[in-house]
């Protein structure tokens, strides 16, 4: 296991992605690389318990030309030979009713100004051409306070489509329950979610050979994820083709992180070279097997959240 060094508060910038994973003194992962510390209070709370980062384990995907979040799906997360497919996204005029949102659906409400914080809320109702009503987001059990005409981006998922649009606060009401009236959108970005969508990601994972459970797990990174499988990068070969393995990792759920332990089979192996660190990388195409309904739901939520965030 890599050694840990303390992290100074000045090394973490509020509102910017973390440059490395952070741990507590017992080497428990607290936040992954790329996660954003939302505000100063969150940073103070983290630093109060002591933060550390690894000095030796610096496994990152090889540098490559930028590519869009969505790509053409391929079986069992095999090598990416086909050129990336651009997101199917367009701004169109549509009514709120055209989105076919249901009462109680979860929406993401992002502040456009300030810290650009993102909040989860629920749809209460809407009237085409006037407004939509959502529950007021909570923090520490208390409703947040927003200013009239404060701008937001709303993101939602319905059926096979993800939606995003700009709006602003018309009025905030504390009774009979805290809720917000948001202006109807003029233009809506609509993204079609295709079967077996894949997303770019950067999830630290431990890998255990299913036929050798007594061997210590090896560290790797999931750089590509779909419902059917993943692309996993490591500094060493994790097994031969056909080897059954177990992946354990943490991903983003709705409002909190989710832990997954998934069984899979290595279907493809290829080599690469990380120009940033000067070390070789081994890429593994993993096919998930025997997914439970709860595991599939967490994967779907993670992937759909990434897709909605891309709008």
* Count, helices: 2
Structural class: mainly beta
Shape: globular
The fraction of residues in strands falls at: 35-45%
Calculate the terminal CA-CA distance, rounded to whole Å: 38 Å
Number of domains: 3
Arrangement of strands in the largest sheet: 16-17-18-21-20-19
CATH superfamily heading of the largest domain: predicted glycosyltransferase like domains
Q: What is the CATH third-level topology name of the largest domain?
A: Thrombin, subunit H
Which ranges are low-confidence, i.e. pLDDT below 50, for 5 or more consecutive residues?
Answer: 56-89
Percent range of helical residues: under 10%
Overall radius of gyration = 21 Å
- The total strand number stands at 21
Series of secondary-structure elements, N-terminal to C-terminal: EEEHEEEEEEEEEEEEEEEEEEH
CATH architecture term of the largest domain: Beta Barrel
Q: How confident overall, as mean pLDDT?
A: 78
Describe the largest sheet.
6 strands, antiparallel, barrel
**CATH class assignment of the largest domain:** Mainly Beta
Describe, in short, the structure shown.
This protein is mostly beta strands and 311 residues long. 24% of the residues are buried.
């Amino acid at each position: 296991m890599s050694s840990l060094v303390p992290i100074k508060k000045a090394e973490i910038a509020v509102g910017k992605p973390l440059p490395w994973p952070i741990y507590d003194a017992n080497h428990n992962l607290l936040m992954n690389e790329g996660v954003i510390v939302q505000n100063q209070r969150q940073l103070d709370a983290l630093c109060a318990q002591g933060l550390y980062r690894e000095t030796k384990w610096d496994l990152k995907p090889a540098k490559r030309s930028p590519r869009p979040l969505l790509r053409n799906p391929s079986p069992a997360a095999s090598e990416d030979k086909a050129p990336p497919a651009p997101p199917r996204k367009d701004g169109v005029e549509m009514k709120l009713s055209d989105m076919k949102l249901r009462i109680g659906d979860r929406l993401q409400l992002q502040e456009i100004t300030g810290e650009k914080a993102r909040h989860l809320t629920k749809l209460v109702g809407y009237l085409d051409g006037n407004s939509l009503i959502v529950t007021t987001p909570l923090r520490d059990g208390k409703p947040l306070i927003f200013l009239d005409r404060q701008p937001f981006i709303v993101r939602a998922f319905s059926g096979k489509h993800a939606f995003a649009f700009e709006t602003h606060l018309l009025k905030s009401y504390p009774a009979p329950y805290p809720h917000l009236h948001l202006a109807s959108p003029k233009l809506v970005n609509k993204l079609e979610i295709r079967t077996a969508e894949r997303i770019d990601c950067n999830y630290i994972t431990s890998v255990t050979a299913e036929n050798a459970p007594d061997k210590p797990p090896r560290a790797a990174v999931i750089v590509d994820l779909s419902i059917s499988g993943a692309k996993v990068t490591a500094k060493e070969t994790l097994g031969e083709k056909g080897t059954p393995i177990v992946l354990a990792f943490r991903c983003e759920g709705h409002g909190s992180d989710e832990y997954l332990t998934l069984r899979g089979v290595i279907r493809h192996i290829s080599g690469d070279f990380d120009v940033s660190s000067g070390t070789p990388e081994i890429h593994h195409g993993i096919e998930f097997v025997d997914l439970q309904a709860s595991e599939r739901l967490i994967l779907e939520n993670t992937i759909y959240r990434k897709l909605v965030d891309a709008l």
